[in-house]
Amino acid sequence: MSKPVTINIPHELGAAEAKRRIENGFEQLGAQIPGGLANVTKAWRDDVLDFSALVMGQTITGKLNVAANVVIVEVVLPGLLGMIAGKITGQVKKQGTLLLEKK
Questions:
Q1: CA distances, 55 to each of 16, 17, 19, 62 (Å)
Q2: How far apart are CA 9 and CA 83, in angstroms?
Q3: Which fold has domain 3-98?
Q4: pLDDT 10s digit of each residue in the chain, 103 long?
Q5: DSSP conformation class of 46
Q6: How far apart are CA 46 and CA 39, in angstroms?
Q7: Is residue 22 within 8 Å of 89, Cβ to Cβ?
Q8: What is the b/e burial string over 50-62, where b = at least 16 CB atoms within 10 angstroms of the residue's CB?
Q9: Record's Pfam families (predicted)?
């Protein structure tokens, strides 16, 4: 059974800078997910990044909606990954916050 997860990551960068950092750091975020990401596909539609990836043998799909002061991550975790949604959510929130930290 799939589990949809939404993560809000506030930032103070503006949409353009947040988008640039996401583009440059997407794989870095994926490395924080247990088992890492493989076969990653991603495509931008304006300020929305659609993606899919293989995690622990299961395909996840999702999108990142980049706004001026928040990035909204929506991901669907299939099967067993849904059981560790809390851990995945925590890691994505932590690493996303670091990536979008104003420096």
A1: 28, 28, 23, 13
A2: 22
A3: Alpha-D-Glucose-1,6-Bisphosphate; Chain A, domain 4 (3.30.530)
A4: 788 999 999 999 999 999 999 998 887 766 666 666 778 889 999 999 999 988 778 888 999 999 999 999 999 999 888 888 888 888 889 989 999 998 7
A5: T
A6: 23
A7: no
A8: ebbbebeeeebeb
A9: PHA_gran_rgn
Beta strands (DSSP E) in 12-85 are 38-45, 48-55, 58-66, 70-77
The residue extents of the domains of the chain are 3-98
Instruction: Count other Cβ atoms within 10 Å, centred on residue 28.
Output: 12
This prediction's pTM: 0.87
Q: Are 41 and 51 in contact (CB under 8 A)?
A: yes
